[in-house]
Amino acid sequence: MFNVNTSLQESAAPLEVENANSPTNSQFHEQRLVEQFCRQTQLLKLVEGSAERFVEHYRRTRRPEDLLAPVQVRLDFDYAHLLEQAPRLLQLVLEEPLQFGEAVRYTVYGLVRARLKTAGLKAIDIGQLHAQWRLVGLPYTPCLQFEPRDQCLRLGLSQVQGILAAYTPRETLVLQSIWFCSSGCMRNAIQTSSTDAPLCSGCSRPMSEYQKLRVTETFRLLAILPCSAVQTPRLLGCLHRPKLIRLRAHSHDCELKLGSAYLVTGYFDGSASTYHLEACHLRSI
Predict the structure, then answer these.
(1) Under 8 Å between Cβ of 6 and 152
(2) φ and ψ at 69, to 5 degrees?
(3) How far apart are CA 136 and CA 163, in angstroms?
(4) Residue 74, domain member (yes or no)
(5) Are the C-beta atoms of residues 263 and 161 closer than 8 Å to each other?
(6) Which range is least confidently modeled, 44-53, 90-99, 176-185?
(7) Beta carbons of 137 and 78 less than 8 angstroms apart
(8) Nearby residues of 49 by Cβ (< 8 Å), 6 or more positions away
(9) Whose C-alpha in 106, 112, 138, 149 is 20 to 30 A from the C-alpha of 31?
(10) Percent of the chain surpassing pLDDT 90
(11) Does any domain span residue 82?
(12) For residue 121, what is the domain's CATH number?
């Protein structure tokens, strides 16, 4: 059985950002924190720019199916800015990354919906919004290290530092697919992470996909070995096992090279069948 470490150790001085006795934030309060931080930084312009491109594309084509197109927003939350301007939001990122991701998603959805209303367009479906966030600049922190061999898995944000030993070829992840009923029902459907044809809610027949409107992203599975595997490769009584990490295309900017050292920030994916991290940022060291 795995023990869950949900507290930050006192040794992690840079991460002492909030009193442990502070009350739990509500979902509405978390969204307000995210919105306030976006308005204080350049993130608001990125959101508005994505919404503006959506509006301009539809006005140029005037195709009804383009109102079902996705709105992709990539947001970098800088650790130093969070520590200085929004320490409570930083605490949420560290302790509840999945909850933080939902807060980012609904906050961006509200901002995009307001822009579309101003442009005279109807609101998009929440499934059309893809807010891809990263936490950049987080320093190496011992208490955040992902160490499954110690039977201690953090439910919050974790880090992996080591040598890239292997990675898979690029695989395709479907972000969104758009479907229509070809039997005359004039109904549409939006699916995420699936390519199976849904059934029409009107006539119960399989729907057809707008192939040109499918949006995909690539990802790789990485195997990261600890640095000790290179420093003491022949240490007796020691088995070096790699940590598995899923790295999506938006999570990194640097090139992947076998044998290079990287620091990966991510979170434990409880829905996966294996103990691997979902990376939200990777940088070389």
Answers:
(1) no
(2) -65, 160
(3) 20
(4) yes
(5) yes
(6) 176-185
(7) yes
(8) none
(9) 138
(10) 51
(11) yes
(12) 3.30.1640
- Strand, coil or helix: what is 103? helix
Q: Could you give the CA distance from residue 265 to residue 157 in angstroms, rounded to a whole number? A: 7
Burial class of residue 151 (count of CB atoms within 10 Å of its CB; 0-12, 13-18, 19+)? exposed
274: its two tokens: 């294996």
What is the residue-averaged pLDDT of the chain? 84
> What is the extent of the structural domain holding 45?
24-137
Which residue in this structure is represented by tokens 């900017």? 253
> Worst-scoring range by mean pLDDT, 106-115, 117-126, 271-280?
271-280
Of residues 160, 126, 127, the one with CA closest to residue 141 = 160
Contact 55, 119 (CB under 8 A): yes
In a domain, 206, yes or no: no
State residue 241's pLDDT score.
Answer: 79
Pair type for strands 129-136 and 71-78: parallel
| Within a domain: 217 | no
277-284 and 261-268 strand pairing: antiparallel
Give which of 9, 16, 5 is closest to 83, Cα–Cα.
16
- pTM, to two decimals: 0.83
Using pLDDT thresholds of 50, 70 and 90, give the confidence band for residue 23. very low
